[in-house]
Amino acid sequence: MVPRQARRTGINKVLLEDLVLKILYLCGEITLLELSDITCLSQEVVDEIFQFLRKEQFCEVKGMAGISYRVTASAQGRQRAAHLLSLNEYAGAAPVSLADYTGRVRSQSAQEAMLHPAEVARAFHEMVLDEETLKRLGTSIASGTSLFLHGPSGTGKTTMASKIPNVYGDYVWIPHAVEVDNQIIKVFDPGVHHQINEPIPEDSDRRWVLCRRPCVLAGGELSAEMLDLQMSEVTHIYTAPLQMKANNGVLIIDDFGRQKMRPDELLNRWMTPLDRRVDFLTLQGAKKFEIPFNVFVAFSTNLDPAHLADEAFLRRIPNKIRVEYATPEQFIEIFRRECQARALNYDPALAEFVVQCISQAWKRPLAQCYAKDLINQIVWEACYSGAEASVTHETINQACQAYFLRAAS
What we know:
This protein is an alpha/beta fold. It folds into three domains: 6-93, Arc Repressor Mutant, subunit A, CATH 1.10.10.10; 102-322, 3-Layer(aba) Sandwich (Rossmann fold); 328-403, Orthogonal Bundle (Helicase, Ruva Protein, domain 3), CATH 1.10.8. It contains 16 helices and 17 strands. The longest helix is centred in the C-terminal third of the chain and has 17 residues, at 369-385.
């Protein structure tokens, strides 16, 4: 429900007044209606703040635009706004309180979602998986906890993990920002939070954005700093860590064991969150606070999990699935789908030839990724030659020679 009074926003009114003053300073001249759109506050709250700033001579009316005042910061207001911007440059949507954020995240928990086999099959329909793997995936996702995908390279573990959010057919509310101890933390990130285009109820609090359940992927670039609050040295604005952005969704740790931070460092950092489902963050000045850790964490690695983590940590990841190479039948189906997706000719005999070429001539296992990678080679060569791409014995052999370094011994 949209707050109609400043005191009902859950945010200190002074913080809202400072936010509005900074926006007035940066925009120059703006209507109260536009100010409402920028702050995502109701017109009633914006008018309440405007009346205060006007009374204190921090802003002044420049005219009318329809039925809305056009206002600007006064000289006194600009002076104060410049000082506020030197402290932090945040001038966007008003934040929500930590208490409201915590309550909303817990009410939207993925653990409360009811999943059925048909929904899991739909989410992974683009992949060629056997029934047992689908069943184990569904069971893992239904737990709402965490999953360890391990197995050889090229078997589709990362793709599998990225499909997990497709299982959920619902949406969640993500805040633009959260206020903690008068500090603003930016949470909404268009890179990971995909806003829906459907109309939302008119009485919705616009400080929240209705999105698909988020999916955050972190690979070899993952560092310890990315799991804590990050403050820009220039803007002095806090940005939420990865796990906070992923709340109510999925966090994928890809190529686990190859990150900038050591595996034991990551595991120690998340021992408590995975166990108690809460995390602790620290503001500058050593102010600590608790946030929900309502994340489905999917670890993906081609290394031996036993060499990456001790038994105490592996117990906290209750679901483990080993992903094997494709069978000849599975590989042929993957190859058929790739040909269909590229509008290429498909011949079952040629698909069997691909399997024979990979496994016998090049002595390689049937990694699921090979189907797409070899089709890419065929398409690229045709594009360069100015010819129409076609799957033949000759183009398959050429693709293998371009793709594989040498036959395995």
